[in-house]
Design a protein that fits this description.
With 347 residues, the chain is of the alpha+beta class. The chain has two domains: 11-214, H-NOX domain (Alpha-Beta Complex); 243-346, Arc Repressor Mutant, subunit A (Orthogonal Bundle). The protein contains 17 helices and seven strands.
Length: 347
């Protein structure tokens, strides 16, 4: 067994698009159990155990690349699922403690969504309720990152384990959504989730009855919860303000909700539109630039990892018609969406 990478860390050590190093250790542990030496794969991914042992975080791209290489070496299409299955509330550190001692399941999931940056600044988690149905989703900020489909299935498996820790081992979602092509064998997915798994979806999510959000968490300690909340607020109060990061998060969320107007993003951030524009300019970017980068990333991911038609993708991204999407994609990449997809699928 490889030495465990189990160091405490501060949110200050996690820059944009980086994640806690915990998942790297899990990837290596699984490879060892499969009889595969992880050192060569780490080297191919551009790192080694010595470097990781001194690190508290790794880039989101590094984790995706390593997971993709590991899946290929192990000939295991569901490798991301295996990594996510190892997640426990304890492995989530301070945030896991807050979830464990939240008053209700809904409070725990909202805490995870609000403070996810403590562990992962490469993606966002969002909780949504539509009538009697609740959805907790996972959305990478740069969905064209290598191995993003494995990232997503890892995260959804981790969310499932977290909910089973809070609700009991027999809890199952109503439905699982994954933004990846269906694997040759879906049994590992249905076996773990014990629910219908829908592949080639717009985003990664668990779907379950909204009434679950009101369920009290047995054994939750309000004193521990208050103490952990204070520590998290202390961490977050010393993080430098990054408007670009906040806009990116808000735009990503609103693409899922199909609402990406600048005034709505400014309102969500409690900033006047002109102030938002000035602050983004000071950081060397614009709202249009961030929105286009986010749209392009999602477009690439859906083209590469699903069989969605251009009309459906253009609708997801809020284009007026497929021709407008094709025109924008060609402007961004120099290729049509169909040509880009064909090139990716040929690799």
């Amino acid at each position: 067994m490889l030495p465990q990478i189990t160091r405490s860390f501060s949110i200050r050590s996690i820059p944009y698009n980086f994640v806690n190093v915990y998942s790297i250790q899990t990837v290596c542990d699984i490879l060892v159990e499969m009889g595969i030496d992880p050192d060569e794969i780490l080297e191919r991914a551009g790192t080694d155990m010595q470097m990781l042992d001194a690190a508290e975080t790794v880039s989101f791209a590094m984790l995706g690349r390593l997971t993709a290489l590991a899946a290929d070496q192990a000939r295991c299409a569901h490798f991301g699922l295996l990594v996510g299955q190892r997640t426990t509330l304890a492995s989530l550190g301070l945030l896991g403690t807050l979830m464990r001692h939240s008053e209700t399941v809904g409070d725990a999931l909202q805490a995870l969504a609000t403070h996810h940056d403590l562990l992962n600044r490469g993606a966002m988690i969002e909780l949504a309720v539509d009538g009697a149905v609740a959805t907790v989703s996972y959305a990478p900020y740069e969905p064209e990152t290598e191995g993003v489909a494995l990232h997503c299935e890892r995260a959804v498996a981790a969310l499932t384990n977290a909910l089973r820790s809070l609700c009991g081992a027999t809890w199952d979602p109503d439905e699982v959504l994954l933004p990846r092509l269906a694997p040759p064998d879906s049994a590992p997915y249905t076996g773990f989730f014990r629910a219908p798994v829908r592949f080639a979806q717009e985003f990664a999510a668990l779907v379950f009855p909204a009434r679950l959000l009101r369920r009290s968490i047995e054994g939750a300690n309000p004193l521990i919860r208050a103490s952990v909340e204070r520590r998290i607020r202390q961490f977050e109060s010393i993080v430098p303000s990054d408007v670009s990061d906040e806009v990116r998060r808000s735009v990503r969320s609103r693409i899922v909700q199909k609402r990406i107007e600048k005034d709505q993003v400014a309102q969500a951030l409690a900033i006047h539109q002109r102030t938002l524009g000035r602050r983004l300019k000071a950081e060397g970017t614009t709202f249009r630039c961030i929105a286009n980068q986010t749209r392009l990333g999602i477009a690439k991911q859906l083209l590469a990892d699903t069989k969605m038609g251009l009309a459906q993708i253009s609708s997801v991204l809020e284009f007026s018609e497929p021709a407008a999407f094709t025109h924008a994609f060609r402007r961004w990449t120099g290729m049509t969406p169909s040509a880009w997809r064909k090139e990716q699928w040929a690799k």
